[in-house]
Automatic annotation (TrEMBL), chain A:
Keyword Cell wall biogenesis/degradation attached: no
Compartments in which it is found: Cell membrane
CDD domains: TM_PBP1_LivM_like
Keywords, alphabetical: Cell membrane, Membrane, Transmembrane, Transmembrane helix
This protein's record includes keyword Zinc: no
InterPro entries linked to this entry: ABC_transp_permease, LivM-like
One Gene Ontology term, aspect cellular component: plasma membrane
Taxonomic lineage from the root: Archaea, Methanobacteriati, Methanobacteriota, Stenosarchaea group, Halobacteria
Protein topology in the membrane: Multi-pass membrane protein
Pfam families listed in its UniProt record: BPD_transp_2
Molecular function, one GO term: branched-chain amino acid transmembrane transporter activity
Name recorded for this polypeptide: ABC transporter
Recorded superkingdom: Archaea
Residue ranges of the TM segments: 6-26, 38-58, 82-102, 114-130, 161-181, 202-227, 233-250, 257-274, 312-328, 365-385, 397-424, 444-461
UniProtKB/TrEMBL annotation, chain B:
Gene3D superfamilies: P-loop containing nucleotide triphosphate hydrolases
PROSITE patterns per the UniProt record, alphabetical: ABC_TRANSPORTER_1, ABC_TRANSPORTER_2
Record protein name field: Probable branched-chain amino acid transport ATP-binding protein LivG
Gene Ontology biological process: amino acid transport
CDD domains xrefs: ABC_Mj1267_LivG_branched
Any single GO CC term annotated in Swiss-Prot or TrEMBL for this entry: plasma membrane
The organism of origin for this protein: Haloferax elongans ATCC BAA-1513
SUPFAM superfamilies listed in its UniProt record: P-loop containing nucleoside triphosphate hydrolases
From TrEMBL, chain C:
The UniProt record lists the keyword Transmembrane: yes
Family: Belongs to the binding-protein-dependent transport system permease family. LivHM subfamily.
UniProt-recorded name of the protein: ABC transporter
Compartment list: Cell membrane
Species, as recorded: Haloferax elongans ATCC BAA-1513
One GO cellular component term: plasma membrane
Key words, A-Z: Amino-acid transport, Cell inner membrane, Cell membrane, Membrane, Transmembrane, Transmembrane helix, Transport
Topological type in the membrane: Multi-pass membrane protein
Length: 484, 257, 400
């Protein structure tokens, strides 16, 4: 898989899980509800969307309930399959919200720890039901007949190579440029010395990794066995240098966020453009560099290249994420959101002031679950196959980790935290190539150990997460003078 | 014992038990307009009485009427909607929210508190919010906490928390306010300030039921005093009469009066 | 040939309940004294089981040097002991720090979740996700078959050896002796209960409550009498009712070990200075500290004890099911939480009783329900918990 393709799939994952995390943030961040069963609504959203869209009799191995076939119901209308799928998604969201009410009414009055364990239990039971009851949604065999909206229309292109490159390539470069600009704004407050030290530390770290993995390529190494040779010695020296420089940079500045942003940007550039740049400089090879820079353009899509379905689907999910982000922002930046946060801080206060907190908690649960449901519908269409093992409780815990890393009660933090989580969890998968394949499971476990430890460390040193709680401002429209 | 002719709060036969312990045992109380003091030795059941009246606890028996409506066993929010609100003995500020937000939370009937309004935002949304902001700012000024409006409520001093607690309750524009020891742990200057404000508000038509330990304060402030003892009303009436009542002195024996 | 029935399910459930109880006892200590709703409890069970595995079958774990392995008993004891020290690590490295920062309940929940993630993946990292079992002798179940005939009760013990059913023993009881056994056992039980509750004044704290003492004596008497009064077997062709109960040495070991452990815990909590300090801390941590209780020491003891108990549960589960996998603890987490909440968080005795109720309901429930519901064994525990919480949101026995 080309690096750009991997980049796209990683971005799509982050987008979908961010949407899932936004739903969790509504419940946990803004209302203080510990719903350890959040994944259940992700699962329900996925299954119901697929079920409603799925036409009957597509497959002989499917023995579940007959699909409602909404994907083909609007076949006469242009873009009818998208319309049918959207209706299915709305039904999926509604189903998730509905189930959350049924779960919430008896449990939401419970103490926070009781709520957590009950929600976890209900999610586990629901998963067991989806797993065991083949008559329902084909049980453990899962559903392969997932409708992927508009997939028939792709890849699209203009037929002209140059025009395609322009049409899809330019926005790609523009987006990268904008990201660079935003990163630069964050990094700006850093003075020269710590910036140089940070750069040095990052480059040394990257260099050390490069030396280690190059010596391991093709070698049968046992984990834990460290061969002393020239490369490894250089790697070790670089690593020590990196730590020393990193420590120095950290002690010299208060802008730790800026330093982290700088290091992340450097690492991303090295990861994404490093090898193509080397190829370009040493051999004049431009293909890889262009492919990575013009990441929205897929050269293999049709004779003249174009926008393939995966790239389209990323943009599609991104639109959902932006919509959900604005929707949640609108909700929390309102007197309604103020009551939600009051419930989080001390439920008895809004209750004593005349706010029916039970209703607020149920609504928050429904809203958050509906967003999880939407994420589920997108997940299914992205993967093209669903089965109950994709919806284990660990997915909920990952989302909590992402929300807490980024900043509880901060919608941008959710997206940042989700990105950090999945970069650690999946973005580092390229390192697997340098280890014998039987270690893949070990490396996956190692990442999760790292993430669990990171969660505890963040909770201890920076419980508010990377970004901290967001600021609130209720927009009063024209003439409204904000005083917050 | 003088009887109140037109009670706002009318409690009859109230009972509350915890396991085998009787906290309130068949209590009758009528509270009228103005400032009424509620005193009694520790463990007399004053706070439990507040909790039962405002719905934080469900009484085991009895009837609570407020402004001619039955509020027995209603949820606290429903009781507050009727215009009967309470403060907490230990102030419950919302620590991660600003003082301003703590105050803006309080006013009743904000249209933006409904989910549909928060999403759709009709015309009254902005109007209501402007009104809420103004009222919150005025109240902060009235209770002299306007200089800390943008601070997180968790950073306030003890006295400021007491004022915030009072301000929040006032912002709901209730008919009657149950004050649970608003002066406990407050320095004399602030105590006078709070009492002054309570008098100001009384003249604006608010009624208060006021738990306080310091009998002298009660004597100065209240038109009427109710004495609770062992989960029942011992006596009630004019402060001077109550103070000289033998039963009251007996009930307080062993305590500082 | 009799088939397994309710009695068999009941015994199975008792074993399940005993294993849950070992976990629940530890969780109730952590929950009430350390005030941590410990979501890592299930994975602590897994860690305990795998620590014993590392000593019992070192070859199964790549990072452990091959040394042949210890017999399961030694490996189990050593593994549990090592697990105890991991409890100390959790407390000192993690929970003590958060406690000193005054972390709230939600934070503690999430911290324990992080720990759970680390522990589970440490197992995955070191051992992998496959099923594995201890290197120990296979234990064959013996079926005790009971036949009720016109003349009384007849008992056969049957074992499957090399594919064939072999009858090991056969005896019976007449109606009269049956009646006598039951009546005498009941009399002993009630008598002991009376004697224990009469001899002491109201204030006396019983190390073992009279009720439990009575029930234990009754059961002992029943077993003794049943052995002594064995008679000739009856012809079983005309049996009006029959049932088969599978038993093995595992059952006895599990029941015995957990009972001894509970007794030891009981002794510790009621009879020692540390125990009194623990109970005072559970009651009110701030007050206990003022009265001179060394909170850090108490918490350390709590975490070590809990880790020992979880490890015991882990080894027993792995041995009983002849199967270890990285999910084994997590699947016990729900029933354990259910038991602790149902039994009242601060009551270890309530937790044990609730564990037995939950264990029995899980296995009896699976027996009574149609076969396709067998996969919902854990769900049964949960339905009970939700039912209890709906009726009494503070738990069955409350926070007493």
């Amino acid at each position: 898989m080309a690096l750009a393709d991997f980049f796209i799939s990683l971005l799509t994952f982050v987008t979908i899980y961010s949407l899932f995390g936004l739903g969790l943030n509504v419940k946990f961040g803004f209302t203080g509800l510990i719903d350890f069963g959040h994944v259940a609504y992700f699962m329900i959203g996925a299954y119901v969307t697929v079920f409603v869209a799925m036409p009957a009799g597509l497959s002989e191995t499917y023995e579940g309930l007959t699909g409602l076939g909404l994907a083909t119901a609007f076949a006469g209308v242009p873009g009818g399959d998208l319309l049918g799928w959207l209706v299915a998604l709305v039904i999926g969201m509604a189903a998730a919200a509905l189930v959350s009410v049924l779960v919430g009414i008896p449990t939401i009055r419970l103490r926070e720890d009781y709520l957590a364990i009950t929600a976890l239990g209900i999610a586990t039971i629901l998963n067991a039901i989806f797993h065991n009851e083949r008559w329902l949604f084909n049980g453990a065999f899962g559903i392969r007949e997932v409708h992927e909206p508009l997939s028939g229309a792709f890849p699209i292109g203009t037929g002209s190579f140059q025009l395609n490159l322009l049409l899809f390539g330019l926005p790609s470069v523009a987006i990268l440029g904008y990201a660079a600009y935003r990163t630069a704004k964050v990094v700006r407050p850093l003075s020269v010395r710590p910036a140089l030290l940070g750069t040095g530390a990052t480059l040394a770290l990257a260099g050390s990794v490069v030396f280690v993995i190059t010596t391991m390529t093709g070698l049968v190494v046992d984990l834990g066995v460290f061969v002393l040779n020239v490369d490894n010695t250089i790697a070790f020296v670089l690593l020590v240098g990196s730590v020393v420089a990193g420590r120095a940079a950290l002690t010299e500045t208060d802008h730790i966020g800026a330093l982290l942003a700088l290091a992340s940007a450097l690492l991303f550039t090295l990861w994404y453009l490093g090898q193509p740049l080397v190829a370009f400089v040493t051999e004049g090879e431009t293909a890889d560099l262009l492919l990575n820079l013009f990441w929205l353009y897929d050269a293999t899509a049709g004779s003249a290249g174009g926008l393939d379905y995966d790239r389209f689907f990323f943009l599609f999910t991104l639109a959902f994420l932006v919509g959900a982000y604005l929707w949640v922002e609108r909700t929390v930046n309102s007197p309604y959101g103020r009551v939600l946060r009051a419930v989080r801080e001390d439920e008895s206060v809004p209750e004593a002031l005349g706010k029916p907190t039970f209703r607020y908690k149920i609504q928050s649960l429904m809203f958050g679950s509906a967003l999880a449901g939407a994420a589920g519908g997108l997940w299914a269409a992205n993967i093209g196959f669903i089965d109950p093992t994709q919806f284990a409780s660990t997915v909920t815990f990952f989302a909590y980790t992402a929300v807490i890393i980024g900043g509880t009660a901060n919608n941008r933090g959710v997206i940042l935290g989700t990105a950090v989580f999945w970069v650690i969890n999946s973005g580092t998968r390229f390192l697997d190539d340098f280890f014998p394949s039987e270690y893949a499971q070990q490396l996956a476990a190692l990442r999760l150990i790292l993430i669990g430890a990171l969660l505890i460390v963040i909770l201890y040193y920076r419980p508010e997460g990377m970004l901290g709680e967001q600021d609130y401002d209720i927009d009063l429209g024209r003439g409204g003078v904000s005083d917050d | 014992m003088t009887e109140i002719q037109n009670p706002i709060l009318d409690v009859q036969g109230l009972e509350k038990h915890f396991g085998g312990i009787t906290a309130i045992g068949g209590l009758d109380m009528r509270v009228g307009e103005g400032i009424t003091g509620l005193i009694g030795p520790n463990g007399a059941g004053k706070t439990t009485f507040f909790n039962c009246v405002t719905g934080a606890l469900t009484p085991d028996a009895g009837r609570v009427a407020f402004a001619d409506g039955d509020i027995t066993g209603k949820r606290p929010s429903a009781v507050a909607q009727e215009g009967l609100v309470r403060t907490f003995q230990i102030p419950r500020e919302l620590p991660e929210m600003t003082v301003r937000e703590n105050l803006q939370l309080a006013p009743r009937g904000q249209s933006g508190e409904r989910l549909a309004q928060a999403w759709l935002r009709g015309d009254e949304f902005a109007d209501d919010e402007r009104r809420v902001r103004e009222k919150a700012a005025e109240m902060a000024e009235f209770l002299e906490i306007d200089h800390v409006l943008d601070a997180k409520a968790g950073t306030l001093s003890g006295g400021q928390r007491k004022l915030l607690e009072l301000a929040r309750v006032l912002l709901t524009e209730p008919d009657m306010i149950l004050l649970d020891e608003p002066l406990a742990g407050v320095n004399p200057t602030l105590e006078q300030k709070i009492l002054d404000r309570i008098h100001d508000l009384e003249s604006q038509g608010y009624s208060f039921l006021f738990i306080e330990h310091d009998i002298d304060v009660i004597m100065e402030t209240c038109e009427r005093v109710v004495v609770m003892h062992q989960g029942q009303v011992l006596t009630s009436g004019e402060p001077a009469d109550v103070k000289s009542d033998d039963r009251v002195i007996e009930a307080y024996l062993g305590e500082e009066v | 040939m009799a088939s397994a029935g309710l009695l068999d399910a009941l015994l199975q459930g008792l074993i399940t309940g005993m294993i849950i109880a070992a976990g629940a006892l530890g969780l109730s200590l952590i929950y009430s004294i350390a005030e941590v709703p410990n979501f890592a409890h299930g994975d602590m069970i897994t860690i305990g089981a795998y620590l014993a595995l590392a000593l019992n079958k070192p070859g199964a774990i790549p990072f452990v040097p091959e040394f042949g392995g210890l017999p399961l008993i030694a490996a189990g004891i050593l593994g549990v002991a090592v697990a105890g020290s991991t409890g100390a690590i959790y407390e000192v490295a993690i929970f003590r720090r958060f406690r000193s920062k005054g972390a709230d309940l939600i934070t503690m929940v999430i911290v324990s979740l992080g720990l759970a993630l680390v522990l589970r993946n440490v197992v995955l990292f070191l051992v992998g996700s496959g099923n594995i079992n201890y290197d120990t002798e296979r234990v064959t179940n013996t079926n005790v078959e009971l036949y009720l005939t016109g003349n009384g009760l007849s008992v056969q013990t049957v074992q499957r050896q090399a594919g064939d059913l072999v009858t090991l023993g056969e005896w019976g009881y007449g109606w009269l002796s049956l009646l006598a056994i039951v009546a005498l056992a009941a009399a002993v039980g009630i008598g002991v209960y009376r004697w224990r509750s009469d001899d002491a004044s109201f204030e006396t704290v019983h190390l073992v409550s009279p009720r439990i003492f009575g029930i234990a004596s009754g059961i002992t008497a029943l077993a003794a009498l049943a052995t002594v009064l064995q008679g000739a077997p009856h012809t079983i062709d005309a049996a009006v009712w029959s049932t088969s109960v599978g038993v093995s040495i595992k059952y006895g070991v599990i029941i015995g070990l957990t009972l001894v452990t509970m007794l030891a815990m009981n002794l510790l909590l009621k009879g020692t200075k540390t125990g009194r300090a623990m109970r005072a801390t559970a009651d009110n941590m701030a007050l206990a500290e003022i009265r001179g209780v060394n909170i850090d020491r108490v918490q350390l003891v709590v975490w070590v004890l809990a880790a020992l108990l979880t490890a015991l549960a882990g080894v027993l589960t792995g041995w009983f099911a002849s199967n270890l996998n990285p999910n084994m603890g997590f699947s016990l987490l729900l029933p354990i939480f259910a038991a602790v909440i149902m039994g009242g968080i601060t009551s270890p005795y309530g937790a044990v009783l609730a564990s037995l109720i939950i264990g029995v309901s899980m296995d009896v429930g699976v027996f009574l329900l149609p076969a396709e519901f067998a996969t919902y064994r854990t769900a049964i525990a949960f339905v009970i918990l939700i039912g209890v919480l709906l009726v009494k949101p503070e738990g069955l026995w409350g926070d007493v």
